[in-house]
Design brief:
Elements lengths: L10 E4 L5 E2 L2 E4 L3 E7 L7 E5 L2 E5 L8 E6 L3 E7 L7 E6 L1
Parallel strand pairs: 1-4, 3-9
Antiparallel strand pairs: 1-2, 4-7, 5-6, 5-8, 8-9
């Protein structure tokens, strides 16, 4: 019988102008992060690696989710609707 592997849930909630909760997260390579839109308006998560655009989510409806699995170690920044204000967070993939 194979041992059961406990999967960690890595969630980040956007809480409007208050930003992200949590706004810093460290995960292992191969783990996924789920962003949850806790605002009343739809929006997007924009992810940057080494200062360069890496990934953009589709529009996330209120209470909607976007999940992405990070396979490459490094430092990432994530932003909410970059054009509408500087609400950001940091992600470290080890």
């Amino acid at each position: 019988v194979a041992p059961q592997v406990e999967e960690t849930v890595n969630e980040v909630r956007y809480v409007g102008s208050g930003g992200f909760e949590p706004n810093e997260l460290t995960i292992s390579a191969g783990s996924a992060v789920t962003w949850i839109n806790g605002d009343e308006k739809a929006g997007e998560v924009l992810i940057f690696k080494d200062g360069k655009s890496f990934l953009s989510s589709k529009r996330i409806a209120p209470d909607g989710k976007f999940e992405y699995e990070f396979t490459e170690a490094g430092a990432y920044d994530f932003w909410w609707n970059l054009a509408y204000g500087a609400v950001s967070g940091k992600l470290t993939v080890e």
